[in-house]
From TrEMBL:
This is LacI family transcriptional regulator. Keywords: DNA-binding, Transcription, Transcription regulation. InterPro entries: HTH_LacI, LacI/GalR-like_sensor, Lambda_DNA-bd_dom_sf, Peripla_BP_I. Residues 1-57 form the HTH lacI-type domain. Gene3D superfamilies: 3.40.50.2300, lambda repressor-like DNA-binding domains. Coiled coil: none annotated. It comes from Cellulomonas xylanilytica. One of its GO terms (molecular function) is DNA-binding transcription factor activity.
Length: 336
């Protein structure tokens, strides 16, 4: 059966039948006509075409999610929350990955716009790179100009609704808690020097320790990529310095796990030879020995909140939802 058959059975025009079944971005159908069309469709067992509905409404039932690396447990946990909230809203998630290349984000936003995604959630740290950020701002503005809505998870610098994790508070609280356990000599596996979230965590951790009288020397702050391999590389660089600190802080858990692997490879025991802490509380930590001290972000809840924010009614000004963090002390930092 075709839509023409439904229109003929209901005694209406093809355009009216299309608007009644597929919806319309700017036209409505009288209730009595809609009822006639729907009754005819049911009688004829007509199944509407999803692409036709998307064209008529101007939007599909998809929600775009852009992440840096779906294999990273940080992003997979956020994706689980996005999928849960999208399902409740009757939407399906279209997943896109930048493979840790932020310059790809604007192109992915444009692709989702052409696919008529109803909304987009972007999860991933911002870089201190105005050219890349400006390109993404322009792509988001273009998408929003045709009715799309956006929520960002991360640094609120793009002028859109954002979920903002309290990185500075969490890193400062972690430094104070570890200092309270007796640690005085620290090193930091700091991530990339232009990664705004990594820098925020690094600076807050160093600042809190400086206030407590235990400053972290510059040569004990090792930059590397924001990945497991980056944690391995940074830990090896730290070990080449010779004298170990009492505690190593990696600015995310994935780097901390890389550091743990590199230390094990070099015969360094955690926590007997050096204590270790991370940030994020990713789901895979439950399988790590020793259990890793970290700062907990409710990642699934962050994904849910971002989706709900993206689907909320439009606002004249960007809305910011702040997410608190929680220090979780475990076996990797037993204290001195």
């Amino acid at each position: 059966m075709t839509l023409s058959d439904v229109a003929r059975e209901a005694g209406v025009s093809l355009a009216t039948a299309s608007r009644a079944i597929n919806g319309s971005a700017n036209r409505t159908v009288r209730a009595d006509l809609r009822d006639r069309v729907l009754a005819a469709a049911a009688q004829l067992r007509y199944t509407p075409d999803a692409n036709a509905q998307a064209m008529a409404r101007g939007r599909t039932t998809s929600l775009g999610l852009v992440v840096h690396d779906i294999a990273d447990p940080y992003f997979s946990s956020i994706a689980a929350g996005v999928a849960r909230a999208a399902d409740r809203a009757g939407l399906q998630v279209t997943l896109a990955s930048t493979q840790h290349d932020p310059s790809r984000e604007s192109g992915l936003v444009d692709l989702l716009k052409r696919q008529r995604a109803r909304a987009i959630v972007i999860a991933g740290g911002r870089l201190d790179d105005e050219a890349t950020n400006d390109e993404l701002r322009a792509a988001l503005a273009d998408y929003r100009s045709v009715g799309g809505s956006v929520a960002l998870i991360g640094q609120p610098i793009l002028g859109v609704d954002s979920i903002v994790v309290d990185n500075a508070q969490g890193a400062g609280d972690l430094a104070k808690a570890l200092h309270g356990r007796g640690y005085r000599r620290f090193a930091i596996l700091a991530g990339p020097a232009d990664h705004l979230t990594a820098c925020e965590r690094r600076d807050a951790f160093r600042g809190a320790l400086a206030e407590l009288g235990s400053p972290v020397p510059d040569d004990a702050v090792i930059t590397s990529t924001f990945t497991h391999e980056g944690g391995e590389d940074a830990m090896r660089a730290l070990l080449r310095r010779g004298e170990l600190p009492e505690l190593v802080f990696a600015v995310n858990d994935v780097m901390a796990l890389g550091a743990l692997a590199a230390g094990r490879e070099a015969g360094i025991r955690v926590p007997q030879d050096v204590a270790l802490a991370g940030f994020d509380d990713i789901s895979t930590l439950r399988d790590v020995v020793p259990a890793l001290t970290t700062v907990r972000i409710p990642l699934v809840d962050v994904g849910i909140a971002a989706t709900e924010l993206a689907l909320a009614d439009a606002s004249d000004e960007p809305r910011l939802t702040h997410v608190p963090t929680q220090v979780v002390l475990r076996d990797s930092t037993p204290g001195l």
